Predict the 3D structure of the following.
Amino acid sequence: MTSSATGEKIKRVLMYAFLVIMSFISVFPLYWCFVSAFNTSQEVLGGKLVPGGHLAENIQHLMEQQQVFTALKNSFVNTLLVVVLSLTCCSLAGYGFEIYHDKWKDRVLGILMLSMMVPFVALMVPMFQMFSAMGLLNKYIGFVLPSISTPFLIMLFRSNARAFPKEIIEAARVDGLNEIQIFFRMFVPTMRPTYAAAATITFMNSWNSFLWPRVIMKTNESITMPMLVNNLTTGYIIDYGVVMAGVTICTLPTVIIFFFLQKSFTEAIAGSVK
Amino acid sequence: MSNSEQTKKPGMTMERRRSLTGWLFLLPGSVLIVWMSFYPMVRAFLVSLMRGKPTALEYSEPLWRNYQYMFKDKVFLTSLKNTFTYLIIQVPVMLVLALIFASLLNQKDLKLKGLFRTCIFLPCATALVSYSIVFRTLFAYDGFINAILVKANLLKEPVNWLNDPTGAKAVIILALIWRWTGYNMVFYLSSMQSIDYSIYEAARIDGASPFTQLTKITMPLLKPIILVTAIMSTNGTLQLYDESVALTNGGPANASITMSHYIYNTTFVTSPNFGYAAAMSFMILIMVAILSAIQMKVGDKR
């Protein structure tokens, strides 16, 4: 009896040890990156684990080497445009597919969903051709256009629209609201958590996107933060303190969103497959 | 508004009017997907049959010439092999780890549950480029990992991880597991919440070990979601780009390059060859389709 109890105890200790080690491994690289932004290149490589006093110096060097403000501005404008436009477009579509669904609309949805399986890289060459023909290289709208309508967000809004009570719609119709008004005045306010979830994941995806801006942003004035961060490591002499300062600046917005909106973020990830 | 005018129109029933309104709602989103996804897909196929400079593309003779060339192209074959190495090693390890984390964190009496979950999920908040560069720095020759391993006497001298074909690939796999395990765990955790906890209690009373509980209760019940994560991870791994660029830059000498990275290089670096790049990207599309179909078939049978 006592031996099995000690066995249980040992098992529990081992389990907690495992979880602590895994949590440590998960957090460590990020912690190390933030700390390294405060240290010199030498200290970074040497493995200094506490922040030093070189943050200002690193950021100053970073700004001498790269157009940090331009990249930050571009990333914010690109990302906010994508969030606003894609939430509007996909919530309208998700609502339409669910509330007015009939045989034909369901078929259309089925076909659109196939595009979820299309890897972006398969479209890279024709997309580049299309966007340069339309004169959209180096422009915000060029970055935004392919991300506005995604099957992922349409599905998220559609599955959440299913829970929207039909009686509200009927009552609103009786009250004389037209269909557009019903959407904006009834649906949008009640779906706030869904919008928050969609906004969180869209922000993360757009902010972090790298391949697409690399395809169409060809000037120094149009680069985004991930592109800037990647540029930092292409020189002959790499100052790791500066690199980590750049990585930290690039990572802060998404990490802040992660901590404040973790619930929305998990809902968005898990909600898409319900 | 237009609605009240339409009401007066004879022959336009309420049903029909609503159906048309519905189409209006979904029109912008649908048009954009067709324009930004299906149309380029058709064009990608057409371009994949062409040769020549980007400004003077012509249909090649024979039409499938780009596809033929692929199997003689050593770099393409390396990138194909690398991508599948990443797929075969990383995806199963990651999904099993994610399942283990999820079932540990699903225990009712676990303390600090929220903290563990947040920590394991945190890597998802980082940009792919950012974490690639962090790993690249950690695994540099004069970097932190080597310093620690040498200090702990686990290594006699520093290993040049990123300059070794196997080492570079291993670091990419480690980095991928670090970045994506928490992401997949979230799927499993949210599905586990719908499993009645009393099943586990009953199993424990019957003397089932945690491992048996995982394989006999959790995994069969989570089968659909495991399938979804497997398909998503496969799809993602076949498209790996950021890590190949920012962590190893494909090196040493293309030893760790992924297909997407090679396609990007063929499209934009040195002498651009749009036709050949399109042909290779079409191969990825076909592979994604085939692998997903296989996974769905296997998932159905089990």
